[in-house]
Write a structure and sequence with these properties.
single chain, 353 residues, Nucleotidyltransferase, domain 5
């Protein structure tokens, strides 16, 4: 979204625990999975969304390109976290050209960074007549700190690709949802993506963006707590948090640890929902769609359904994507919770807005 370059692209989701690469072919409004690969990262390579070891990250992307026999050079990537600000703001109605000229000054009051330190983009959502009878418009404003943007674009450039589009994780989730699920008028849907170090919350109203927030807690919190309290290695802690068997584990102690972290995540989600409802008044949330690698934590969907008192469903980013038989069905089913952002990036094309 923040800058862009209808030919094919590849989507690259650079997360703290893995890098996902996807290529989707489009024909007559349907998508077909062409390429998909995952490279798992050591925990010190990307920490809390900050690239700490660019050399090994570049090698991981290059290995994926080679493994998947990728020839396309145009890559779609995304960013998230506290270096990213997304706001829905109300402004006096003006043309897109007028807004482009004045956006820097309009945005200063909403961006908590020096305006010269960010890259910005905007999209006019709708226009309406305000209470005073004057024409107004809702505008989606996005800003990313330049140093964050440079880190991520440099990574793909060094891997031999062109960063053709830079999106935002929450918008990629919205794209994924839009191609796979029916959008109902007036329905409020919370898309919650629990990654390794961040949880993305994106609330849609009738299929349109309404609110987003990134929470600085994710699957790593489970792993760290299990390692500390049960004295396990990183690998064993990763296994047991997903419900895999590791010898000598006290199941009651494990359930207590997982429950404590899940409560912490549920509390942050509840606070976000409360802020959303307070800010936008009577807007409703009718269901939750859960994704991200940590949506595979044992019974997390059931736990959140009880705590949030809302229907919770694990999203299937391949629900309406044609998956050829050469892809192993069990593998696709297993990795699908991790693929939501990647799918949302994979449907982007160079002439998109």
């Amino acid at each position: 979204m923040l800058f862009r370059r209808k030919k094919e692209t590849i989507g690259i989701d650079i997360g703290s625990s893995s890098i996902k690469l996807i290529q989707l072919e489009e024909s007559e409004g349907r998508y077909r999975l062409s390429k998909f690969g995952i490279s798992y990262l050591a925990p010190e390579m990307i920490v809390d969304g900050t690239i700490m070891d660019s050399v090994r990250c570049v090698e991981a992307v290059q290995d994926l390109i080679k493994e998947q026999s990728i020839s396309t050079k145009d890559a779609v990537i995304s960013v998230s976290g506290h270096s990213v600000i997304v706001k829905r703001v109300t402004l006096p109605q003006m043309s897109e050209g007028e807004l482009a000229e004045s956006i820097k000054w309009e945005a200063e009051q909403y961006i908590p960074f020096d305006i010269n330190d960010v890259n910005m983009d905007f999209q006019i959502l709708n226009t309406f007549v305000g209470p005073d009878g004057k024409p107004q418009m809702n505008v989606l404003l996005a800003a990313v700190k330049k140093d964050k943007l440079t880190d991520y674009t440099s990574l793909v450039i060094e891997a031999g690709l062109r960063p053709a589009i830079v999106d935002i994780d929450s918008f990629a989730l919205e794209n994924m949802y839009g191609i796979n699920y029916e959008v109902r008028e007036g329905e409020g849907v919370a898309l919650i993506n629990i990654g390794a170090s961040l949880t993305n919350i994106n609330i849609l109203q009738g299929g349109m963006f309404a609110f987003t927030r990134d929470i600085s807690i994710g699957g790593n919190r489970y792993t760290e707590s299990i390692q500390k309290d049960l004295g396990l290695s990183y690998d064993d802690a990763e296994k047991v948090k997903k419900g895999e068997n590791v010898e000598g584990i006290d199941p009651l102690a494990l359930d207590a640890i997982i429950g404590n972290v899940s409560s912490e995540i549920a509390g942050e989600i509840t606070r976000s929902f409360g802020y959303f409802k307070t800010t936008l008044g009577s807007e409703n949330i009718d269901k939750v769609m859960l994704s991200g690698g940590s949506s595979k934590v044992k019974n997390i969907d059931v736990f959140l359904q009880e705590r949030l008192e809302l229907p919770v469903e694990i999203a299937n980013p391949f629900k309406k994507i044609d998956v050829p038989p050469e892809f192993d069905a069990d593998y696709i089913r297993d990795i699908s919770p991790m693929a939501s952002v990647a799918v949302g990036l994979g449907i982007r094309r160079l002439d998109d807005r």
